[in-house]
Records
---
Amino acid sequence: MATEIKIAIQGGAASFHDTAARKYFAPEKAEILPCSSFDQLCEQLHLGEATYGVMAIQNALAGSILTNYTLLQEYQHFQIIGELWLPIDQNLMALPGQRLEDIKTVISHPVALLQCGLFLRQHHLPTEERQDTADSAREISAKGLKGVAAIASSQAAELYGMEMLQEHVADRKDNYTRFLVLSSQPQAQAPKPTANKASLIVQIPHVGSWLGAVINKLYTEDINIPLIQSIPAPAGNTSHNVAIDLECDDYYRLLHAIEELKPMVEDLQLLGLYQKALTPQQLEECREGELSTSVNS
Ligand SMILES: O=C(O)C(=O)C[C@]1(C(=O)O)C=C[C@@H](O)C=C1
């Protein structure tokens, strides 16, 4: 029988976090705990109000969400137990009967607005930030706002009775967001030897070529590095923090490489050991494969 788990997300029903959480945990039934910010998501997970948290960390068009690395540094006891790359299809929607010419303002999550910069500039559409894509559609519907459009998913359009003004408005069709699955109870989720990915934050001095030495070490250990992201350091700091993702199909080699890095850096925070998800490139290849099968059949 499917058990029910509670998952804290940023945003509400029909947001991309909602879709990501349900997809990751399917076929388990997920009860969603909507949060108004990433801070609140972490707080709820910390307080034990949710079993897991799902948090966006990186988008193929807009880049890394650096403030979420800061939260992961703050909540040191959280563990990343998994990840998911989700295709993000953005759409422009408004109250039924509205036309593109009627729209004076577009509201959405700041990352969603960034993903649709080309479309918005082309149509000279001023924007206003909101906490969530789907909640922007809900706001228009609840307040009966004319002259305002939202950028959100097709599920949000359906849920809140919006009409599509323009589908697929992101700058590129291969728009993907990577979501982290977080647990605040590492003991209940001990990493399994099937883990083939690790996420770390290392602290290294500003001076010297420490980062070069770290990368060189990983190269000699034959570890793949899918991500290196510098994280802003507090003012006056003499060192900086770098988020690094490591991949290796041999779990024990991955552990060994992490041990080797420890004496080379000032501090190393292991954010989690988990199984890597299909990358956007792999998902695109699957999608193209499915398309050609349906055309040929
Ligand atoms: O507003 C939403 O629907 C979200 O889930 C937020 C969010 C984000 O935080 O990056 C998630 C994925 C998309 O890339 C755009 C926005």
---
Amino acid sequence: MIATRELTKRFKSVTAVDGITLEVADGELVALLGPNGAGKSTTLRMLTTLIPPTGGSAEVAGFDVVAKQREVRRRIGYIGQGNGAGHSQRGRDELISQGRAYGLPVRQARARAGELIESLGLGEVADRTVSSLSGGQRRRLDIAMGLIHAPELLFLDEPSTGLDPQNRANLQEHIVGLRREHGTTIVLTTHYLEEADSIAERVIVIDHGRIIADDTPQRLKAKHVGDRVFLGFGSETDATTAAGLLNGVREGDRVQVSADDGPRMVPGAIEELRTAGVAVHSVEVTRPTLDDVFLTLTGRSLRNEEA
Ligand SMILES: Nc1ncnc2c1ncn2[C@@H]1O[C@H](COP(=O)(O)OP(=O)(O)OP(=O)(O)O)[C@@H](O)[C@H]1O
């Protein structure tokens, strides 16, 4: 669905996107994750033909984003950071006008608007003016606007920024539902770690305009950080024995061990220690977050930049 090669965008002295090569298959739900200024929006803006690359190339839905802009635009939906819908119109009318702008006959535009209103849970508010909608409702209306022409591919730039946690969760559910029910390929940008972790099956981590990691959230965490298992003992002597046997690090009467899959390694470790005459008093497993992955890869925390 998407194939880029060394895609690059320079703004005078700033290289916003620095040679990105990636492929996205049909039906994938991909999150581009990175701190402010990493180049996520610029990447999306090139893929949606809003700005031309200064280097490299990209094909979207089978068409070159420079040579075949119209073909690309017809096949994609794009929901930018700003709010696309006008404020004094009713939500339903906005949707119908948008459908007309994409060339749908009025009857089809009406039918499609009705379907989207239903599936995005906007039934009760669609006939109110856009300015009276809550942030979450407006964001869902934006998504409906991006979907009116039934695109194969939907780009969402920071869809949940500015929403409260409940509206954010609700929106995420709708995004996952779109993929599930219509097979829409979805590429979104986010700097919310939990969002990338929970809804995307593939996370592309971007920093300084480059891809620094690209995998499922689970594999990123297992590969770059792993689980940490903390075992507590009755004495420092036991802890020292355990640290030697399990190749762990002792702190007082506790031992920290790294593991790809903490919960799975614990029973074997307890058994091994018991055979050696060492009783385990407590067990705690901590699993990494995508922030730990980012920290390992860059030495910086995304969480600090999230605010
Ligand atoms: N029109 C422009 N002119 C000059 N510099 C720009 C322009 N657009 C973006 N940049 C710069 O390019 C870099 C990448 O910006 P971009 O908006 O793509 O980042 P981002 O990862 O989407 O961040 P955010 O989460 O803040 O949107 C930044 O340094 C930004 O200041």
